[in-house]
Amino acid sequence: MSGPEFLIHPDANAVAEAIAERLLTRLTELQQQHADRTINVGLTGGRIATRAYQRLAADGPGSEVDWSRVGLWWGDERFVAADSGDRNDRGALAALQPTLGLDESQIHRMPADDGVLALDDAAEVYAGEFGDTVLDICLLGVGPDGHIASVFPDHPSFERSLSATSDVIPVRDSPKPPPLRISLTHPAINRSAEVWFTVSGADKADAVGWATTGSKPVPAGQAHGTERTLWLLDEAAAAKLNH
Ligand SMILES: O=C(O)[C@H](O)[C@@H](O)[C@H](O)[C@H](O)COP(=O)(O)O
Fold first, then answer.
1. What positions does the domain Glucosamine/galactosamine-6-phosphate isomerase occupy (predicted)?
2. What is the mean pLDDT of the segment spanning 165-181?
3. Ligand 1 mean position, distance from CA 141 (Å)
């Protein structure tokens, strides 16, 4: 594993564009290298990522990517009804599904709170679906507190994620609403070949600083890819970067 790489763009829009462009290039390369299998991508919620998905939806159809060989997973999900606007998967799929022609079998949504599964069972079901998946690319937004997925600092989810024996955990009392969530754990994230952090805005500068200097233990500081760890930032978020 090499050290983290930092790519700094002028603003949030430029970061979103860079993520979309880089995804198209990398997915094409990976499909050439691994003609026999699906390429698995872990999606994140958040504003930048959603903008990147919209860009991907526009540029994806004319690209060299074979969308029938891309598997979509989620790093975390809010445990609310499937049709709730709070779901992370809604924004992503609203953008991606209409133009990329994705089959349901390629879309690995985390279970919703639909009265069938309780939170703990829902996490277990997703762990079963995830199996021994190694994400080729895991996108991670970062909160101003340094959270990634639904793993929060100064919260039981952090210790639980770091020491998890499962790839997926239920999260209760999330400091960021809604309170019930499902999250990939650090072992699952850190098995990814590539982890791409997507971060913009001055309110993220401290979090980026803590994660990259280790000056405060935050979930983002403990996440990395086995082959590559990439920080895609805007200038404001990079203000306290250690590199
Ligand atoms: O589940 C959530 O509450 C969000 O998905 C959250 O974890 C988000 O990814 C980060 O807070 C970054 O969001 P922005 O890119 O919008 O700053």
1. 10-231
2. 98
3. 5
Q: Report how far residue 121's alpha carbon sits from residue 56's, in angstroms, rounded to the nearest whole number.
A: 33
What is the residue range of 58's domain? Answer: 5-234
Cα–chain center distance at 58? 20
Distance CA 227, CA 33 (A): 15
pLDDT at 2: 74
- Which ipTM was obtained for this model? 0.92
pLDDT tens across 56-77, in order? 999 999 999 999 999 999 999 9
- CB 113 less than 6 A from any atom of ligand 1: no
- Summarize the confidence of residues 47-54 as an average pLDDT: 95
What atom in ligand 1 is closest to the CA of residue 88? 5
Distance separating alpha carbons of residues 121 and 11, to the nearest angstrom: 40
Q: From the CA of 144, give the closest atom in ligand 1.
A: 11
The count of residues in the chain is: 243
What separation in Å is there between the alpha carbon of 128 and the centre of ligand 1? 25
143 lines ligand 1 (CB under 6 A): yes
Q: Is 243 within the bounds of a domain?
A: no
- pLDDT confidence bin for 34, thresholds 50/70/90: very high
CB 176 within 8 A of CB 88: no
Distance from C-alpha of 37 to C-alpha of 120, rounded to nearest angstrom: 31
- Domain total of the chain: 1
HSE (CB half, 13 Å, CA atoms) of 34?
Answer: 10
Say which CATH number the domain at 212 has.
3.40.50.1360
